[in-house]
C-alpha cells in the first residue's frame, strides 16, 4: 500500500492571526511586516491576506513597493507571542490525529496517516475533520495536501488555497502537476527557475515528459532529484516532533474516526498510545510518577483522571493496567467516546549522559 502523507499549511498565517484578533480587519488587505512609512520604509512583507494579494502583494516583497501597490492596506507588525500561541493550539490538534507528526516552522506540519487512513477517500474525510476542527477550535483556516510522498503533499497543499484539500495519488499526479509552474517544486527558486527556463522547462509537465536517464544526462544529480520528486519516488519520512523541548510531561491524544463505545476499539487505541509514548520514554531514558487518562465524549464533554506513584517508574505493562483501571469509571457510563488521550508527568531522568537534561528534551504542556 502507498503511504498517505498530509501536509497542512495555515493560510496567510501571520495575517490570519491579526484578523483573528481584530475581526474588523476581515475583508480588507492586511499586510504584516515592516513599517511602510508611507512608501519610504525598509524591510519586507512577512505575509499578507488574500485581499492584499489581489493588488500584487506577496511575502518577501519590499514593504515600500507593497505600499505603492496598496496604500490603503492595513499594515501591522507581527505579534510573535500571539503567533506562537495560535501555532501551538493548531499543532496540538494536528498531533492527536497521527502517530507520526512533524512541525515545520510555525505554520506547516506533516502527518504520516498511513496507519490511520484506510485509503485516499478515508484520508479526504479525515482532512475535512482536521480543517473543520482547526477552524472551529482556533478560528483560522488551513489547506491540506494529501499524497503518497512528502513533497507531493506539500505541492498539493498549495493547489486549492485558501481552506482547500487536494488529493494526489499515483493515478492523478501527472494531471495535477503538469500545468503547475516549476517553482511549485520545493527547492526550485528564482535563480534555478531562470536556468531551467533557458533549457525550455517552464511547467512541471515539461519535466514529466522527459525519461529519467535523459533528466540525469541533462542535469546530473539535480535531474535525478527532480525526476524522483515529481514522479512520487522519494522516500523521505515524516520525522516525529510531537515532543518539543522543555516539556514537563509527555502526552498523546487520538480522535476516533467515528464516536465509539466499542471496548476492543478503545482498548486498541489506548494500547497504541501507551506503546508509542513508552517508546519515547525508553529512548530518552525518562521515568514518570503520574499517569493521566483523558476522555472526551460525544458533545465535547471532557474528563481527566490521574494516578500517581510514590516513586518514579517506567513500566509499559503497569501503565496499561493503571490506564484500564482509570477507564473503568468511564466504561460504566455506556456513552460513545470521541477522543482519548494519555499523559505521563512528573518526569525524571534515569541516568546522566552527555546529552542535555530532561527539560531540554520535553516541553511544558
TrEMBL record:
Coiled-coil regions, chain positions: none
Record-annotated active site: 108
Assigned keywords, A-Z: Cytoplasm, DNA damage, DNA repair, DNA replication, DNA-binding, DNA-directed DNA polymerase, Magnesium, Metal-binding, Mutator protein, Nucleotidyltransferase, Transferase
Example of a GO MF term: damaged DNA binding
GO biological process, one term: DNA-templated DNA replication
GO-annotated cellular components: cytosol
Co-factor(s): Mg(2+)
Enzyme Commission code: 2.7.7.7
Entry's localization field: Cytoplasm
Catalytic activity: DNA(n) + a 2'-deoxyribonucleoside 5'-triphosphate = DNA(n+1) + diphosphate
Ranges annotated as spanning the membrane: none
Signal peptide: none
Pfam families (alphabetical): IMS, IMS_C
Cofactor note: Binds 2 magnesium ions per subunit.
Domain called UmuC: residue spans: 5-189
Annotated site, Substrate discrimination, chain positions: 14
Enzyme class, UniProt record, top EC level: transferase
Family note: Belongs to the DNA polymerase type-Y family.
Subunit structure: Monomer.
HAMAP family documented for this protein: DNApol_IV
Stated role: Poorly processive, error-prone DNA polymerase involved in untargeted mutagenesis. Copies undamaged DNA at stalled replication forks, which arise in vivo from mismatched or misaligned primer ends. These misaligned primers can be extended by PolIV. Exhibits no 3'-5' exonuclease (proofreading) activity. May be involved in translesional synthesis.
NCBIfam families recorded: PRK02406.1
Name under which the protein is recorded: DNA polymerase IV
